[in-house]
Specification:
heterodimer; A: Beta-Lactamase; 3 domains; about 20% strand; B: about 120 residues; about 40% helix
Chain lengths: ~550, ~120
């Protein structure tokens, strides 16, 4: 029916209260409407039969006062829950006109005014006094489940998988054993399964999260609109879990709202124990989009900081870099001049010229390599995990320091472990840490004026971690600095910003590792960081 | 210039060392190469050397240290200092030790040859 016609019909129906009365008189369930203070507004025939009070006796009276055998405090708490959640269902003991106590199963639903304030409460009641204990217990369970289902802040769905189960059974009959392989090669099977996965019920959170106007818009339909193509592999996984009779499955994925907006979600499906292929399946959806967006932002910020810190390290190395580039340039210029002279001789010495040219080519390459190294260090790009040889990372990092080390007369000693496994990490960021730690060590040793400054660089594997250690022969770290060493804006340098070590820690932690400092037995400072050898799948 | 003049080149950067020696030889001078000041001093070639061309920053003894050592030994062999260093303080210290010439790498080859000729004259 088109929307306009529908609302006209609704108006016409609302205009005939007689019809409503008649409907209510006809139902066998007790229907009672009360206002928020508890005064009865409507009392149907079935209510008269159940409680023994006539409509005339009840309308305008307080419902709970007349029927309630429960303590007022308990009633108040139920009412509070009702007004918060909009509905409540459960079991009450009530006293009839003849003084008999009966167990009544009630469902309450708040009717809001257009402004959202509650106006009245509709109650449906059934006498369950004569039900067996087992039935009562199972009803109680059902009520608990229903109340929870509605009250949860997560989106809950009850889905009817029965047709899909039939499809799976048919596959099994056809001899399909490798369901995973079958789903991969027959994506249309998954599409078809999604198209026949029916929605039995959803809670209010589902309605708002998936952008529906009401529960009715979703119930009875299929889940197809909510599963974007990219996420159907997760649906396939939940079918696999069903085939393998796993109790449930939980996956991060992206789902779609009714208007096609994708969001990051934690999807959980669970098959209650003892559930043998019948009855609805319970699915929970938690909206992760805010968390995922925040994580993305943190990662971007972290890589910005890392970049800023790299630039500042390069800034400290400017003189070194200029020196390093000037060497091959000087060699090239001098070789060029020498070559011209060998050529200008009465008998040009071509052997000399040939040797000179070979040198010029390799010097030019050397200069280009230095520039490339600096460019990668200066570039601002996101973190990128690659398989790396730890020792190679150390050796490349030292390239940045060679000149600085010799300028400070620092003796660099390597103790690099042999046969170390590769690690999964961002090359530039790891080099940045090593360069940063080495520069700090050099500056501390110079400041303290220690004789025979030495840095030991070690790599080794221990307890599932790849350990990097940088030990200097300086004065060590004062005890009072240990705590704050890796905090932002902590510095002992006159011109330091105090971000270097904080950013080192950021980088290491983003790689799932840890960083710390200690004093070596020799008295010098030792900075260590360890990266897990089995890095988690998430990128740093 | 005397064709017998022997020039000793001291630089720990192999490329620069080789290039400088090649340029000197292309001009007809004889040149010896050393990768450190210590190696030069220990070689005993100082006695035959008419001119020393040295880098400043090297592992161990620096070019400035070498010049001071020669002064201390009473040697009058002229010293040309070439450096890739750019900071002013290093240049000041180098100038203070009174070299025959102080050139910044990369240097102009004509300037360099003029320096060598003057120092050997």
């Amino acid at each position: 029916m088109p929307e306009a016609n529908k609302s006209q019909a609704t108006e016409a129906w609302r205009g005939s209260p007689g019809l409503l009365e008649e409907l209510l008189e006809g139902v066998s369930e007790s229907v009672i409407v009360r206002d928020v203070s508890g005064k009865v507004l409507l009392w149907n025939k079935a209510s008269e039969a159940l409680y023994g009070y006539s409509r005339e006796a009840m309308v305008g009276r307080d419902l709970h006062e007349h029927l309630g055998s429960h303590h007022p405090t308990m009633r108040a708490s139920l009412e509070r829950h009702l007004l918060e959640q909009g509905h409540w269902e459960g079991e009450l003991k009530r006293t009839t006109a003849s003084g008999e106590i009966r167990r009544i199963e009630v469902r309450w639903k708040v009717q809001p005014a257009p402004d959202g304030k509650p106006v009245s409460i509709v109650e449906y009641g059934r006498d369950i006094t004569r039900l067996s204990d087992i039935e009562l217990e199972s009803r109680l369970q059902a009520h608990r489940y229903r109340n929870l289902f509605q009250a949860m802040a997560a989106s809950f769905w009850e889905l009817d998988f029965s047709v899909v189960r039939g499809m799976l059974a048919e596959l099994a009959q056809q001899g399909v054993e490798d369901f995973r392989g079958y789903f991969e090669s027959h994506p249309e099977f998954i599409d078809a399964a999604i198209d026949v996965t029916r929605v039995v019920d959803v809670n209010d959170k589902t309605v708002s999260l998936f952008g529906a106007k009401s529960r009715e818009e979703l119930v009875g339909g299929t889940v197809a609109a909510f599963w974007p193509r990219e996420s159907r592999v997760v649906y396939a996984e939940s079918l696999l879990a069903a085939v393998r009779r796993l109790p449930g499955l939980s996956r991060e994925t992206r789902l779609s709202t009714l208007d096609g907006k994708l969001f990051e979600a934690l999807f959980t499906v669970c098959w209650p124990p003892g559930h043998h292929g019948r009855g609805p399946v319970l699915v929970g959806v938690i909206d992760f989009s805010a968390r995922v967006a925040a994580e993305r932002e943190v990662r971007a910020l972290q890589s910005e900081f890392a970049h800023a810190s790299r630039l500042s390290v390069l800034g400290e190395l400017t003189a070194s870099i200029a020196h390093e580039v000037n060497q091959p340039l000087a060699a090239i210029a001098t070789n060029g001049a020498a070559g011209l002279r060998w050529l200008s001789r009465p008998v040009p010495d071509l052997d000399e010229v040939r040797a000179i040219h070979a040198n010029m080519v390799s010097d030019a390459k050397r200069a280009a390599d230095i520039i490339a190294r600096i460019r990668s260090m200066a570039s601002n790009r996101g973190s990128e995990a690659r398989r790396l040889s730890p020792n190679q990372v150390v050796e490349e990092a030292v390239q940045f320091l060679r000149h600085e080390l010799s300028a400070h007369d620092v003796d660099l000693r390597f103790e690099l472990g042999e046969g170390l496994p590769d690690i999964e990490a961002d090359r530039v960021q790891l080099q940045q840490i090593i360069v940063n730690l080495a520069l700090n060590a050099m500056q501390e040793m110079t400041r303290a004026g220690c004789p025979g400054p030495t840095i030991h660089l070690r790599t080794f594997a221990r307890e599932g971690e790849l350990r990097f250690e940088l030990e200097d022969s300086g004065p060590g770290i004062p005890v009072e600095h240990h705590e704050r060493l890796f905090q932002s804006f902590f510095t002992t340098k006159a011109n330091g910003l105090g971000m270097g070590l904080a950013i080192c820690r950021n980088i290491v932690e983003a790689h799932g590792g840890r960083i710390w400092a200690e004093n070596a037995a020799s008295g010098g400072a030792r900075f260590c960081f360890a990266l897990p050898l089995e890095t988690p799948a998430a990128s740093p | 210039m005397s064709p017998d003049s022997l020039i000793s080149v001291v630089d720990d950067d192999a490329s620069v060392r080789t290039a400088v020696v090649s340029l000197l030889r292309s001009c007809g001078w004889k040149a010896l190469a050393f990768d450190s000041a210590e190696a030069f001093l220990e070689s005993g070639e100082l006695a035959r050397t008419h001119l020393i061309i040295t880098d400043i920053q090297m592992q161990g003894m620096s070019g400035i240290d070498l010049k001071r050592e020669l002064d201390a030994r009473g040697s009058s062999v002229p010293v040309i200092i070439i450096t890739a260093k750019t900071d002013a303080s290093v240049m000041e210290r180098a100038k203070a030790c009174n070299p025959a010439c102080l050139l910044r790498k990369p240097f102009d080859s004509e300037d360099f040859i003029a320096c060598v000729e003057r120092a050997l004259a």
